[in-house]
Amino acid sequence: MDLQSDPIEVSDETESAIREYHKNGASVIRGILDKKWISTMREAIQRVLDHPGSASVEYTPKGEEGRYYGDFFLWRRDPDFEEFMRHSPLPAIAAKVLKSNSIRFFYDQLLVKEPLTKEKTPFHQDLPYWPLKGEDILSIWVPFDRVGLQQGGVRFLKGSHHWKQRYAPTAFGKDSGFAKIYAKMGWEPLPDFEKNDNTYTWLNWETEPGDVILFHPLVIHGSGGNQSSNQRRRALAMRFLGDDVVWDSRPGTFIEKETIQEILPELNLKDGDQLESPCFPLIRTFSIQPETEIMKQNNFQENSIRNSSHE
Ligand SMILES: O=C(O)CCC(=O)C(=O)O
After folding, report:
1. DSSP, residue by residue, 106-129
2. Fewer Cβ atoms within 10 Å of its own Cβ: the N or the C terminal residue of the chain?
């Protein structure tokens, strides 16, 4: 067990980014990761790109320019990814955003768009892809290159996380094997937001390595290809879970894919279960919350004793 429980102190800028996140569904925190994390993780990402994992997906068709590479649960096979999810500043930020007494790691997702990659990331909400119910879910998008819209920076539809509607997941690539799984869900497809692009307010940021973007599991988002001929776009999406999240066994989520099942042999959760599984490690046990959260924190102390006896 490797649990973090140090008090969380965040800067005024981070506090303000957290308020913005709750209001708009996405926000940026500047300069939160130091150079050591960036260089270590760039090397780790290169190891993965050179030796693709069994669950990885090459979204760029063979023979086309560029490379859109996707991979999942890297922390399970590379110690630097595990170190990053446990010991970077991100779990503490997640605890602060989610006001949660415990933080679990759901998974990390690598999304690399090499120069001249044409493939877009289709607009989508994340939660429909996931076998989860609950509110306490946060993604943090971590770029390891300078990224603007031209390099495939992610765009977020401002405020869309407040909408009641949930749309069917869209497969990122036609041949990735996910489309037939998602079709099982039978939900309404996402409207073509790009067609009426000007009708909506979009958020996006030019980001430098060290910056991170917080985004909500229901905010509508997507990205273009990487039009640059010489700038890479290496990014890692980190998914954190808080107290109220339970397993949702509805059909058609990404976890059904055989290649994902194969890398999670211990997975054995039933509908409504808490995510107590080595596949989704508990990485923080408590956080210092604002005064209004003190009651919740008292309850937490009992929970954390219970939790620590499980893992
Ligand atoms: O990196 C991208 O292009 C999209 C990221 C994304 O959709 C996600 O992390 O949910």
Report:
1. EEEEEEEE-TTB---EEEE-SGGG
2. N
